[in-house]
Design brief:
alpha+beta; three-stranded antiparallel beta sheet
């Protein structure tokens, strides 16, 4: 019996699971068939690792958003074990004082150079 079957809530860090390739491909294909003007977003490893490295970060929340040009994009930020967005955290500076640091709120994911690759992958 799994945690979900017995009603036990997963911790934030345990949310998500690997699925079979075929299921993933089918889910993506179904979405783009229903939403042909939508495009995938590409997010680089470095920003993901920077967000996850923040103190208390257990996961990342992705928000649908519009950028300054009015294009659909994602804004993403770290979340703590209670699912709250991390907006700042404490940091000890070089003089030993505890200061507050603004947490990372990220955007600027690129899609244009990857669109052809995604469609080729989906329909092959």
């Amino acid at each position: 019996m799994t945690q979900q079957e017995i009603g036990v809530k997963k911790s934030i860090s345990q949310i998500g699971e690997a699925i079979p390739h075929e299921l993933g491909f089918e889910m993506i294909k179904d979405y783009y068939t229903a939403n042909p003007t939508e495009h995938a977003q590409v997010i680089g490893k470095n920003i993901i690792l920077e967000i996850l490295a923040q103190p208390g970060c257990e996961g990342i929340r992705f928000h649908h958003a519009y950028n300054e040009a009015g294009e659909k994009t994602l804004v993403y930020m770290g979340i703590d074990a209670q699912g709250k967005s991390i907006v700042e955290y404490n940091l000890v500076n070089t003089t030993g004082e505890i200061t507050k640091k603004q947490a990372i709120v990220a955007d600027r994911s690129s899609k244009s150079e990857w669109i052809a690759d995604i469609w080729e992958w989906l329909w092959s």
